[in-house]
Amino acid sequence: MQKISRIYVGGYGVDMAWYDGVTFDLTDPATGEPTDTILNLENGGGKTTLLSFVFSCFDTPLERFLKHIQNKNHRFTQYFARDGQPGIVLIEWVMPPRTAGGQPYRLVLGQAVAVKASAERDEVERVFFSFEANSSLTFESVPAPKLNWAPVSSMLEFSRWIHDAHKHSPDFFQTRVQHDWQKHLREERLIDVDMLKLQVNFSAQEGGIDTGFLTFNSEPEFIRKFFGLTLDEGLAASVRQSVVDVCDKLRRKPHLQKCLTELTRLRTSLLTFNDAAAAYTVAHSAQDTVLRRGAGLVRGLDVMAHELREAERDATAKQESQTVLAKEKENLSKQHAGEATTLRLLQLTRALEAATARKESAQGSVETARLTQLCVKAAKARVEIAACETRLTELEASAAAAREALEPWRDKAETQGALLRHALHNAEQALRAQASAAGNEETQAGERLGTLTQDLRKLESAVRTLEAEKARLKADEDNYLAALAQLIDEGVLNEGEPTSAALSRYAELATKKRSEEQQRRDQAATLREQERDARRRAQEAALDAAKAANSIAQRETFVAEGEAEREKLSQLPILRLVAEADTADPDSPALLPALERRTLAEERAVAQHAVQLSTLQASHSAIMETGVAGGSRDVNEVVSSLRALGVKSAKPFNTYLARAIPDAAAARALVLSNPARFLGVSVASSELTRARELVGQALQLDAPVVVSVAALEAEVGSEDRFVLPAADDAAFNEEAAQVLLQQLDARLAIAEGQRDAHALRHKEAVTAQEQLLAYAKRFSGGALARARAEIERLRAESTAALARAQMSEEQADEYRELADAASQAAAECGYAAQTAEMHRAAVRRFSEGHDVARPTRLARLQAISIERAEQDALETQLEAERGNVALAKETAFKRKFALEGQAAERLKEQQEVMYGREGFPAEERLRAQPQSLDVLRTLYADAERTYSTEASQRLGLLSLQEEQARKGLTERQQAFAAEFAGMRPEDYEVYLDTTDFAARLRQCADTLTQAGHALRDADRDETEAATERKVFRKDNPQVEPATPEMLALDDASLEETLSRTRVAQQEATAAAKAALSESDRHKQAAREAGETARSAEQSAGSLGASLGLPDLLDAAVETPDSAFVEQATALIAEFNLKRKESEGARSAAIKAFDRLRGEAAMPALQEVEPDIASQLLRNEFEAACADSARLLDGLDDRIGTTEASLAGMREDFEACLGELHNLTSSAIALLNSACNNKRVPPGAPYVGGKSILKMRARFHELGHDVRRQQLGNYLDDLIESKTVPAKGAELVADALLRIYGKPLGLQMLKMVPDEALQYVAVDKIQNSGGEGVVMAMFLYMLINQLRAETQAKLKKAGGGPLILDNPFAKATTPTLWQAQRLLAQAMDVQLIFATALPDYNTVGEFGRFVRLRKAGKNTKTGRWHLEAVDFKLNEQRSAAEVAA
């Protein structure tokens, strides 16, 4: 495959990247063969500039200059020296051998460009050249800087070298015509220019091969693009032309086929309508029969419904009567129910009252039994005490005799005992009086203590009040001192400074600072305004600069468009033909007049050839019609007019001569004697007069026509004129006409070719004239020069505006700083004023809150101190008094307690005195002989001891028994008093006579137990009665009150009345139920009658509605069956069935008729058969049914005629179909090869061994006949549409899709690790970074390989290197490029990439690495020159790996 070994660029670039003669070696250092190469240069260093010059050798128009594509302001002329020094680019190709076993050869292509700047325009001179390198003429032979020892300095010198080069290389080619250059590259040098042009689109954006190549959005677009790049363009164009020719020849075939199709479709609809109409007639008759039966049944149902309605009304009346009766009984039942409820409630109330009474009675019985039991126990105790008293009396009586001897001692003991008892009693009473006095003292002390406690509480409350007030005042004073200290600490107040002075000081300071603040703010506002003015001026200047830049861009675009248009016009063949030069000068004032002359000349030539064609065609027609040539429209017009006047002998004179004089020479001599006469019109002499009537008529003749008598005598010549003969005698001799007829087709073809050639040149001339005028209107008159001058002026203005903007911005920044400083000062003044105001407000708050009230507060604190001292003194006094009173109270209590104890002891001692005489005057005795208690105690003890001793000695056991009896009596008396306290003797006297107290107590216990049981039963009964009444009241919340008559009833009468009322209620309820049942029965009867009537009416209505009977109700009455609903339903069903059948048949007929009318209304039918369509559209439904047979017969006749007309158009169609079938078969084979044979090499990462394209479609499953049928349909569509795809590849793609009939399922390989995601449909490809780049390169190399294979079969060249601008912009992964290089090597595609990527791991996959760098700046030109340096990538890569 073709590869590039070296590239040279010199005298080209921009100031920052100037190529002053740089040679790029693209060969492998080891083998010297072309290899994949990286051109490395920093971003902005001139990579795209280099590729732009290289690509301009193949994509030559200025508007296709790569830098101009990227930015319209960049122009081709800007990249060359403007002093005429030529810029040169050379590309050395290593071409494959021309023959098998031959050696590759080297081909050098080049371009030299020189730009001369002038006031009017930039003069651009471009020369393209090529030669096959040999020993005499090599790559280095080109006189370029740093390449040849004698570089040229002007295009004149380069032209001399070109002249000399022709001597050294016979195949040296040079041209300034871009069309000739590209044709030379394609046809002579076998360079695949189209693929190189495609790469310009790839490089329009760095790394943009995906956006420039993957431009299809659907599978059809992909297929068109694929075949457009892989199929042979000439072959595809040839087939397309055949399709165009067939479409022209068979242009009536679509019309006839359309006629046949529409008539066949119409016949189908008409036949369907005919069958449907017949079915409708039969169904309609059956429907009428059922309709009449339904009318009779409707009348019978009406009679039945009337009778049933009468029965319904009777039953309804009876129902209403029974309903009224039921209501009355129901009301009576409710009344009795209310009375029963009231009586029952009264009964329950009485039961509750009775239970309550029983409970109260039981409670009384329990109390009585308990009291009785207590009284019996008291009587028993009283009887036992009486027994003890009796026994004691008996013992005393028994001992009385024994005591008589002891009387003196007893008397003395009793006397001393009486005295001691009385003395003890007196002592007890005295002690109790003292205890009472002590108690009074205690009470008084307690009252006083209470009073003192109350006073102390009041005093404590007052103290708390004062303390709270003191604390509040103290807190206020503390707050004052703290606030004052805080103000002093914060510097608000000076030490010892009055608040009034501070307020004045801060007021003055705030006023001063506010004034300063306002001044600063005014100053800042002024500065801000100045800043805004400066910013505005800067913006205006920047806007001016932007406008200037925009104007510059517009004018740059204008200049670029002018230069491109000028170059385009200079390359137009018609203009170069007019200018008689290699290139035309659109600015030459002589070019337009010369073009106008050429246009007129071509127009005349077209007219002349048109006349010639018309003459030849007229001759052809005349020979076919009359046997001779020379037919004239004017002659024919005159002949027709004469015959219209009745001149039957009128005929063209030449046809008369041809038949009258077969000898060509004689006929020629006769014609030459007077051509106007003998080539005019002949008439019989007898009709000449009538023929003269034509003279007055206005005939539309192009030339005069001689009408003369049919005579064969030659006219006498004249010496003052002569006649030249025609080239042949075909106009008046049949034999000569037949000879001419055999030559006419060739002469017609020649004339048509000449006319078409002149017409094409005329069209090109007119188009060129329009373009030239447009160019002159837009760009001539110094427009480009003015635009360039305007650009320079605008650039100067833009620079000045930018300088003004920068100066204004600096001024604005200065003003902003000053304004910021003034604002800061104003803010500081404002802050100071605000601080002063805050301090003043703080001092004011302090003065108002603390300072004003302080004297009053201090006075009050002093007063509170005095009051507190007084309160403390009073509290001390009260506390002391309360202590004394408490002590006195305690002392009195202790004394009272002690005295009461002593009194108790005296009482006890009295009780312990066993002997005492009753009635002894102890008081008088003691008053007469006072003795102390101790003496009396001693005397009593001696007397009692003496008596006891004597008694013990004399009485013995009797005395002991008496003592025990007395002690027992005392104990029983004390127990009785304790147990039966409060019981009166009369309560238990009745039971004193009881003989058996144990039995009586058991009887009382039993009685009490029985009474308890009775009480529990009564309580339960009361609870049950209350619960029952409560539940009843809850169930019957609204109960009428009992009447007096009810209240007067006793329990028996109440029960009887309640039973009677309940019975009456039940009877009323039963009567109501019976009435309701009877009402329901009548209601049911009415409902049944009504429902039956309704059913009859509904059935009649349904029949009437379903059958549509208003006009048929006079039918005979038909008695309905008992199951009339089913009868009617069945009849309706039968009618519906018949109607459905009828309607279905009618609907089918109407639908068929509508379809028929729809078919007739179709524009397609109206277009091809308007008469038939109009007749069908005018017909009504019934008329159409009657006329369908005749229409069908006529339609069949028309179809037969159309089929006969189409019978003979197949031969040309089949021939074209064969060519298209062969081409599509080749396309299918090409697509199958792409999908099955083109794979990624097995060693590639992720996708090794995988096909680049996959296709789901299986064309081998479609047979030959299927393909031809689909292609035939496609050709029919093209013929009908009269639109053939613009390109042969598009025609093939559309035909291929038409063959398969559905998407082909094409998928493209995507380089991802996940095998499930490695194929993506071509209509779903998304340009996603590196994946898109890899997919685009896969597709490009596949197409490149297929293109090379296709061109090789046709003995052409195809394929070539892939040159890209920084494809690493989106893909930097080494594995991606490893796969790309393996595929490129497998397909023998050379990769040449320009990039700034420093990643050696990525670019290390490439065999050659050319590093560019800036060599230095030329001080004379100010340009930075570039140079290529040796760079060993493997060493750098090893160093990078070591560093990593």
UniProtKB/TrEMBL annotation:
Record key words, sorted: Coiled coil
Keyword Membrane annotated: no
Stretch list, region Disordered: 513-536, 1014-1046, 1065-1101
Residues in coiled coil: 378-405, 784-825
Chain intervals with Basic and acidic residues compositional bias: 1026-1037, 1078-1091
TM ranges: none
Keyword Coiled coil: yes
Low complexity: compositionally biased ranges: 1065-1075
Full protein name: Uncharacterized protein
Organism, as annotated: Parazoarcus communis
